[in-house]
Design goal:
mainly alpha; Four Helix Bundle (Hemerythrin (Met), subunit A); 3 strands; about 220 residues
């Protein structure tokens, strides 16, 4: 492997790790990012790290502060509402197309994704908070599976970025609405199997708006 490919591979791995650490709340909102320390922690050079953080800045996960460096993007109630609205816009647009085009293989992936999510939700309902990150990964996987047959990779990529912003808010606030959310996910699965796009969009609006209201009422983002 050439030196250039090795360097690119190292940079890609560092990008993926930093991005995941921001999305899943291991790097706290508002945290000033110290480049020297991060270069050691993530195994990359300071110059490569600057490029990575600039890229994450374009994704809205990092704030570039000129000569002062970089900071993890803050969170706020208004920010969560904006991200939730964008998620709903994209997901309700993609759902009807995905339901219309989805085949048996798509159905199988949706069912499998829901099975994993439902398993984690049952664990969470027992009070087990040790696998919160895995629960949210499966949540993301399920919602992504619902729309993956929409036929537009551009739409899926855009949705993935917005969902990660939404997920970050959930991780910061540790949002779990218990049986209500689990029932909504089951309803989304039922709508997918019945190809009921209108029903799915109605459930999705209730699901997302309910999560936003629950989070804001908790004061976790204040």
């Amino acid at each position: 492997m050439s030196i250039e490919l090795v360097a690119a591979s190292i940079a890609d791995r560092a990008y993926d790790r930093i991005r995941a650490d921001i999305v899943f709340g291991r790097l706290n909102p508002g945290l000033r990012l110290r480049l020297d320390g991060m270069a050691t922690d993530y195994g990359t050079s300071v110059s490569t790290l600057r490029e990575i953080l600039s890229r994450l800045s374009s994704e809205g996960l990092v704030v570039a502060e000129g000569q002062r460096g970089f900071r993890v993007a803050p969170v706020s109630p208004a920010g969560f509402e904006d991200v939730a609205a964008m998620r709903l816009l994209l997901e309700t647009y993609a759902l009807p197309m995905s339901f219309a085009a989805g085949d048996l293989e798509w159905e199988s992936r949706v069912v499998a994704a829901h099975h994993k999510l439902a398993f984690m939700e049952r664990r969470m309902l027992t009070g087990d908070q040790t696998a919160t990150e895995l629960w949210k990964r499966y949540d993301r996987e399920f919602h992504q599976a619902l729309i993956e047959a929409c036929g537009s990779q551009t739409l899926l990529d855009l949705y993935g970025g917005v969902f990660d912003q939404y997920l970050r808010y959930q991780m910061v606030a540790v949002v779990f609405r218990g049986e209500i959310a689990a029932k909504e996910h089951r309803s989304l699965l039922d709508c997918a199997l019945a190809r009921d796009a209108d029903g799915a969009c109605a459930v999705l609006n209730q699901h997302v708006n309910g999560c936003v209201a629950y989070t804001l009422e908790s004061g976790a983002l204040a």
